[in-house]
Amino acid sequence: MRDAEPAYRRWFLVRGGDFAKAGAAACEIKELLKELGFDAATIRRTAIVSYEAEMNVIMYAREARLDLTVTPGEVRLTVDDRGPGIPDVGMALSEGFSTATAEMRELGFGAGMGLPNIRRNADAFDIDTEVGRGTRLDIAIRPDGRAP
Amino acid sequence: MIVLKDVLALLEAELLTPKASPEAPCRGVFASDLMSDVLASAEAGSLLLTGLANAHVVSACSVADLAAVVFVQGKRPDPGVVAQALSRGLPLLATKLSMFEACSRIARFIEDGGHAGR
Question: Of A70, A124, B26, B73, which cross-links B67 as Cys (Cβ 3.0–4.6 Å)?
Fold first, then answer.
């Protein structure tokens, strides 16, 4: 499929520690993709990816910009945070590995499923991280892509 | 499959979101206090049983397209959480039963083909 002009672009600011707003971007994105006529499975995968990414920023980073770009054939999310970075990406991508605090776990998070679940729901996944600077995720979800 | 009115009867539960349809279907059942597990493993259209009663439950369940939530062990969410669920069309139920007892009753109901003697 040739590159199409984006049908929609939107960005969200996610602040570290702002647990009250967790999922705000994911819920807005979900409504938006519904209006744009995407199928339920694509909407669900995108919303889960966005929610997990938001939670990671809220739990670990200072802030992030979450960019949503929608074209007919692809939903793209980039999450660029200012934060501690990830010393061992391989470990962070292993299911069950977590550096969450007790407080995070009490809220129902920090099971070590965030990044693995993002990757599982994505058709393309790229992570770029630098300790002391931050982490950037680049994720694509395609309506005709694999369902997890 | 199990519908909301069966869940209400089986678990002697209270419906916290009155507008929910009693015939609303649940295509599966998932039990966890970890929203990470809900996002990773619960299937769309499932009923969630949980002992966690905060706003993240509603957010995670609406994101993952869950059908309804049962708070077990007498846990009750704040009115703000109920309001959030109402606005997202997510039915909330509360039961005094333990997680184990609630899961057992639903499991028996499903094993008996939805005709449990109760």
Answer: B26
Q: Which domains does chain A have, with CATH numbers?
A: 8-141 (3.30.565.10)
* Domain edges within chain B: 2-111
- pLDDT single digits (tens) B2-14: 999 999 999 999 9
When CB atoms are compared, the residue of B52, B63, B65 closest to A108 is B52
Confidence of residue A113 (pLDDT cuts 50, 70, 90): confident
The residue type of A29 is I
B107 at the A interface (CB within 8 A)? no
Would an 8 Å CB–CB cutoff place B49 in contact with chain A?
A: no
CB-based contact A120 B40, cutoff 8 Å = yes
**SS3 call for B11:** coil
| Contact residues, chain A, for B54 at CB < 8 Å | 107-108
Residue of A nearest to B65 (CA): A44
Interface membership of B63 toward A (CB under 8 Å)? yes
CATH number of B2-111: 3.40.1390.20
pLDDT at res. A93: 93
